[in-house]
Amino acid sequence: MIDPAWHPLLQEYVELAKNSAPRATINSIAGEATHSSWCMPRAGGPLFFARAQGTHKWDGAGRSYIDLWMGHGSLLLGNAHPVLVEAISRQVIDGQHVGGAHVLHVEWAARIRELVPSCECIRFTGSGTEATLLALRIARSFTQRPRILRLDGHFHGWHDESLAHVVPCNAGLNPGVSDWVTVVSPFDEETIIDELAQRDVAGLILEPGGGSAGSLSWSPAYLQMLRKICNSVGTLLIFDEVISGFRYAPGGVQELAGIIPDLTVLAKIAAGGMPGGLVGGRKNIMETIDDIDQQRRRFLVPHSGTFNGFPLTAASAIATLDMIGDGVVQARAEDAALSLVKAINWAGESTGVDIRAFNQSSIFHLLIGALSEGSSVEPGPAAIRLPQQNADKYTLLRCALLLEGVDCHFSHGWLSAVHSSSDIEAAAEGFSRAFKRLRNFDSFLSP
Ligand SMILES: Cc1ncc(COP(=O)(O)O)c(C=O)c1O
Question: Pocket residues for ligand 1 (CB within 6 Å)?
Fold first, then answer.
């Protein structure tokens, strides 16, 4: 629980949250919210939002916030972009679910392939988590090998294989899964090579743009090294570009690094900010999902799902992909992130609190306590360790930001192509006011 000395700030937040939704209703939701990051158990409960438009969102009581969460990074074009609203509305009228293959699937797949050529063949899923699950299944089926290699600090959703060995996130997981998933440090190249040399690894999955949404660093040379080893031992290289796809560049990190992975996982922006995801890859690998070849049935990967390729998602995705192919929106979002990071760091310096930020593409990451422990303010293990070690402080920062009209994840946030310079200015002022609240507590002060 949070230190009682912080109660005044917390009390103010509790009041804000209480007014955002009827308490009786909240009590009927397990954990009070339906995503671990929304629950706020350390602060007495979540804030409930009612609507969002462009770069702003409003809570259930009608109070407005600058949105720096942006649908967990799925809204590169902001909330309720008029072109997407039109595309989705048209599709609702034409049928929200046709109960079969839809003509939009073909158009959607063509757009993906055009921007991400390694996706020669595509299969749509209901979410990013489902897509990583499917990619691992395809890798096992194609290679006829049992083991998966993951990198520590890299996130791939919430199914058992992506959470195996993640402490303390292992409650309820199938204990047998951990025997077939090995997690290694992304910085320990020797162990990565040793594990792969055993030639029983079906797939190496990673966030090529840096683990945990770019909290960790990445480089073309590092990815090239992984590409080379995977080639030499017959392991599939799986890029989880759920975060970096269409954000770091129109063709994702694979375009920036000039690397062709065997399989790519995409969701969020790829799904037009709607529920959905996909796996794409080399044709001969993707052919393991082939419901026609009865003779090979024991190798075929089972894959169903009521909302695979959901037509409303397809309509939004196609409209999104048509607007983001030339790199202009990505550059705009990154400029906005750079300006905000500069402003946050200035606010940290001028208010004397030990909070700093860095950006990776158009995502910013917040470090509380980095200066005190001598960590540098850049992508690296501290960006993952500090939020775990200082969970109470990160919760307090989020409360202070919400009280000052800014909403982002505890330790990071997302910019879009529609965040204007006045949005950034307003957000910077919100950060500065939040930092002034926090400097009342000694433990937030810079060394
Ligand atoms: C890199 C990465 N992979 C997979 C997922 C899971 O996607 P979803 O939340 O759509 O299930 C996420 C979610 O944030 C992610 O960041």
Answer: 72, 127-129, 132, 155-157, 207, 213, 240, 242-243, 267, 277
Q: What is the mean pLDDT of the chain?
A: 94
Q: Which of 408, 410, 399 is nearest to 66 (CA)?
A: 408
Q: Are the CB atoms for 21 and 60 separated by under 8 Å?
A: yes
pLDDT at residue 294, as a whole number: 62
Taking the C-alpha atoms of residue 180 and residue 64, their distance in angstroms, rounded to an integer, is 47
pLDDT in the model for residue 229: 98
H or E segment to which residue 246 belongs = none
Residues in the chain: 447
**97-124: average pLDDT:** 97
pLDDT the model gives residue 82: 98
pTM over 0.85: yes
In the reported structure, the alpha carbon of residue 157 is separated from the centroid of ligand 1 by a whole-number distance in angstroms of 5
Sheet holding 56-59, edge to edge: 49-53, 56-59, 64-67, 406-407
407's enclosing H/E stretch is strand 406-407
Pairwise CA distance, residues 38 & 72, whole Å: 11
Beta partners for residue 182, in sequence order: 149
Phi first, then psi: give them for residue 75, nearest 5 degrees.
Answer: -110, 70
Predicted confidence at residue 445, as pLDDT, reads 92
pLDDT greater than 80 at residue 395: yes
- Cα of 447 from ligand 1 centre, angstroms: 36
Burial, 125: exposed, middle or buried (Cβ in 10 Å; 0-12, 13-18, 19+)? buried
Helix, strand or coil for residue 98?
coil
Furthest-apart CA atoms within the chain: distance in Å: 70
Structure tokens at 397: 């920062």
Give yes or no for residue 297 having a pLDDT over 60: no
